[in-house]
Amino acid sequence: MTTSAQTVIRPARAKTAADTATVRRKQGFQHGGWFVAPFLTLFALFVIWPLLRGVYLSFTDANISGDSANFVGLDNYREALDDPLVWDTLGHSAYFTLLVVPCITVLAFFLAMLAHHIERGKWLWRLCFFAPFLLPSTVAANLWQWLFNPGTGMINHVFGIDTPWLTDKSYAMLAVVICTLWWTVGFSFLLYLAALQGIPDHLYEAAKLDGANAWHRMVHITLPMLRNITGLVIALQILASLQVFDQAVVMMDFLPGPEESTRTIVQYTLEQGFTSYRVGYASAISIIFFVIIASFAVARMWLLRKGEEGVR
Amino acid sequence: MTATQIRVSSPKARKPWTPSQILLTLLGTAVSVVFMSPLAWALFTSLKSETEAVAVPTHWLPEKWTGQAWKAIFETGNITNWFVNSLVVSVCVTSVVLLVSALAGYGFARTEFRGKGVLLGLVMAGLMVSPAVLGVPLFTTVQQMGMVDTYWGMILPQCAPAAMVYILYKFFQGIPRELEEAAFIDGAGRWRVFFTIVLPLSRPSLAAVGIFTFIASWNNFLWPYMVTNNPDLMTMPNGIATVMNSYGIQWAQLMAGGLMAGLPLIIVFVFFQRQIVAGVAHTGLAGQ
């Protein structure tokens, strides 16, 4: 607000300066198309286009060479829903997810609490718990295949047992789960650790003054403050675990495992596409799988929104 | 601010060993030993001869220490090729992802353009698409572009990570607008504001995005496995899993190769772990 005296003395100049400022400020935030263009180009080519193409292919009998695809309507979907192997392999992926998600969440929380509360050598604990995540999945899988090896493996030797980990139906998936826990818990551990460090100290100090013991402080401060991150860890783990492929395949030498018990939905889809050359059918399974994954993500968003409303 | 300062200065004034600290440290040590022993087992196996590696009964330390396996993988195998390929692919992917997702994150967070809401929704949907979910259609797309068995075919499909855009988008939304407004009023252009004000402020987030992209790309198995058949073009995880596993596994060599694939990242982590944890906290990954 310029005073009237100033406006009278230099009306034109004052007006222009103010105008330019507003215009510049507004323009600064406009026309951002060029910022997003490079990403959107790559995104359209390698995410959106394959998705649309997958939908198209799922209605055809396309093979891997790409020629002579005929429109077959819903045949692929009908076949997929009747295919016992689709349900079996989906079941294996779901079973894996059910085992991995709770274990990893609890283990990651436990490790983060340890690393956060031990006062000395914090870098060492961080390194030890996170290091396995830095290995390629195939290396972790080979390593555990070697550890679970019935004759020469260390696991049976150390525990003095004789379990046929990789050749018996009842243990094979468990072996894949154990390998996965060791290999990927580090990532969730890091998320929890960062969240723990973000809890303000004064909350604990106030609780201490009020006479709360360590257990009470954990139940009434730490756990509620970690609610959001736990939701994130579980959501990310569900999405990642449903897509399990690498470990299972490498640990079983690229075979479906004992009595096909570790063949996952991803593995089955890729077999249909690349081994049986049935691109159309594989695409149909992919789309069904995509819908399952997407419904989990939508459910999470719905839960989040509901949670926020609850708080308000 | 004060919290970090206190934390930094505490190591000098050593706290006494309370019973609970002793207990926790012992527990931590035990868990760490369990976590590290598979890696130690890999290392010891790689330093045995092939016959000793599969000898029964199994034993931890080599009776005769030998570098045979390490020498063999360098002399006979393709491993140096794979290492270079991994490096080329990961460095390219990381650079492109950093540039492209920082620009897009800023564009979505701060600028207005037509169709922004719809596009942002598409990006969210893209969070659920991966080579594991849509491998076959993605492969046929890349095949049509003639990029099977090329570096481009391995690199480009890894360069559109919706997750990284989303993380940076969230972060840029948190930067106070006034900083940019002041610069605009002084006559700075949008690109100048982005590169000289916004990017320097985002260093910890960019570091976290860069590091996690590099890890993901260095360790990526599924996509390179689908798109390359040529052993000369394979990356470390791919080469180790397919070629080294194909004709009669030689465990000592396999463990040596595996360590060679894993050690570079572990060494990098030793030096940058503080930044990585700070970056995770900073990107708001932790606060979602």
List the main descriptive attributes of the protein structure presented here.
heterodimer; A: 312 residues; mainly alpha; 2 domains; flat; disordered N terminus; B: 288 residues; MetI-like fold; globular
Layout of helices and strands:
The complex is a heterodimer of chains A (312) and B (288).
Chain A: H1 4-9, H2 11-28, H3 33-57, H4 75-82, H5 84-117, H6 122-130, H7 137-148, H8 154-159, H9 169-197, H10 201-209, H11 214-225, H12 227-242, H13 246-251, H14 265-275, H15 279-311
Chain B: H1 2-9, H2 19-46, H3 50-53, H4 68-76, H5 79-110, H6 116-126, H7 131-144, H8 151-155, H9 162-174, H10 177-185, H11 190-201, H12 203-219, H13 222-227, H14 236-246, H15 251-282
Helix pairs in contact in B: 2-15, 4-15, 5-9, 5-12, 5-14, 6-9, 9-12, 10-11, 12-15, 14-15
What does this structure look like?
The complex is a heterodimer of chains A (312) and B (288). With 312 residues, chain A is mostly helical. The longest helix of chain A has 34 residues, at 84-117. The model of chain A is unreliable at 1-12 (pLDDT under 50). In chain A, 75% of the residues lie in helices and 0% in strands. Residues 1-11 of chain B have low confidence and may be disordered. Chain B has a single domain, classed as MetI-like (MetI-like fold). Chain B is built from 15 helices and no strands. With 288 residues, chain B is an all-alpha fold. The interface between A and B is large, with 103 and 112 residues. Chain B: Belongs to the binding-protein-dependent transport system permease family. Chain B: Residues 83-272 form the ABC transmembrane type-1 domain. Chain B: It comes from Streptomyces ureilyticus. Chain B: It is found in: Cell membrane.
